[in-house]
Amino acid sequence: MEAATVAAIAFAFVLAGAHVFAGRLRAFGRLPHDLTVSFAGGVSVSYVFVLLLPEVNRAVLDVVESTDAIGRFFSRDVHVYVVVLTGFTAFYGIHALVTHSRHGTDGAEDAEDALDTVFWAHLLSFTGYNGLIGYLLFHQEESGVLNLFFYAAAIVLHFVIIDAGFRRHHGSAYHRIGRWILAAAVLVGAGIGVLTSIAAAPLAVLFAFLAGSVVFNSIKEELPSPAGSRFAAFLLGAGGYTALLLMA
Q1: Domain that holds residue 101
Q2: Apex CA 16: angle with CA 207 and CA 171, to 5°?
Q3: How many domains does the chain have?
Q4: Tens digit of each residue's pLDDT (9 = 90 or more) over 60-83
Q5: Is the overall model pTM greater than 0.70, yes or no?
Q6: pLDDT, tens only, 15-29
Q7: Which of 5, 51, 153, 177 is deepest in the core (most CB within 10 A)?
């Protein structure tokens, strides 16, 4: 078995564990919660703009020159970035639905039913998201253990942000059920990834969608409430991770 495959399997369990133990790490850690989330957001955004999008840009040539259906649909390289925007917009819509549901119902029973429905809809969307992340562990645009490490490191911290959002919106329901489902989704996606192959063109599309999704899911914890964010921690995360990428 190749070293990259072994590393991808190991990282799949690390990513799954991030959801299971993220709450416990924050509970016993010394760093304030907002510092942790801001730092994680900086790393995640740096990963997208400094590493992931350049890889997608290189893969765009495969998409444009491809003769398969996806290649014909994305006949110009700029079309792939529509997928980046789609990923960003899709999760913006999910976030808006979850946020508005907390204030848009009348009566305790109606509110409880609505929140339960939104919880499962929210969880289902991120189950697919986590499955994609697990799948892409075995289908990186750039091969090698180092590239896998940078991917896994950024995603682990990104999961800290996702965990924080779920705990804020859904509390005990997420702790009892949601975190286990999201952890399992990573492993299921990884299992599919190790057993299947994918052409270069659709792979570029998947990474483009992931790029837009990661950007929104990272900055959403920063922008809506700047008083609760920590720009210095965000800057440290973005700058430090960027420096590591440039030195690698």
Answers
A1: 3-247
A2: 105
A3: 1
A4: 776 666 656 555 556 666 677 888
A5: yes
A6: 999 999 887 765 544
A7: 51
